[in-house]
Queue: 2 jobs
Job 1
Amino acid sequence: MPAKPDPRLKRAGVSGYNKPKRTPKHPTKSHVVVAKQGDQIKTIRFGEQGAKTAGKPKKGESAAMKKKRASFKARHGKNIAKGKMSAAYWADKTKW
């Protein structure tokens, strides 16, 4: 008998575990992911809606934008290091 799909995936509207997705209609958070590490599963909403710094470093990016990116990583370094079960990890991976 096949395993029943996890209702958290459907509720979050994502295609699978550890697959972040934009949430343009959410009032405050820009992304959602259903994180899975071992047998621990957690729905995480992360990212500021409308943040202008989102995305990977652009070619010819301004010095100010590079500093913003570096500041984010410095400010949230400890939380990013916590791994897949932290919002900071997903924000760093997806937005910064």
Job 2
Amino acid sequence: MEGGSERVDEMGTFDTNVLGVLLSMKHELRIMLAQGSGSIVNVSSTFGQRGGIGASIYAASKHAVEGMSKAAALETAASGVRVNVVAPGPVDTDLLDQFSGTAERKAALTAGVPMKRLGTPAEIAESIVFIASNKAAFITGAILSVNGGKTAM
């Protein structure tokens, strides 16, 4: 069957990104609501706010993560539980190297970032730590774009 493996990959992407977040929140919220506090940080992507050529399933899955997170934030706001999203842009990882394929394509991705550089895994981790912390105690339902300005364009 032509395209069969692509369909499996697409469904795997959607299941991981959407079903994985849904089931994680289900179990996290069960505990956090009972204790009257907590902070959930889901991970999206720049594609959660914008589309991308050849990335319709991935973009749809990340839009779903953002929508579920906003709905959960509204549903739990009065209970002491916060739900937010960190949405990274291009991050300098082995996966980005695989995705881009060549040094020229990676350079083109980098050139498309207003800050003219890729993010680092540490910068994404620090963003997650911040938004999960008490320093962000009045933030819920937010999408924190950590992408060097890509979504400001």
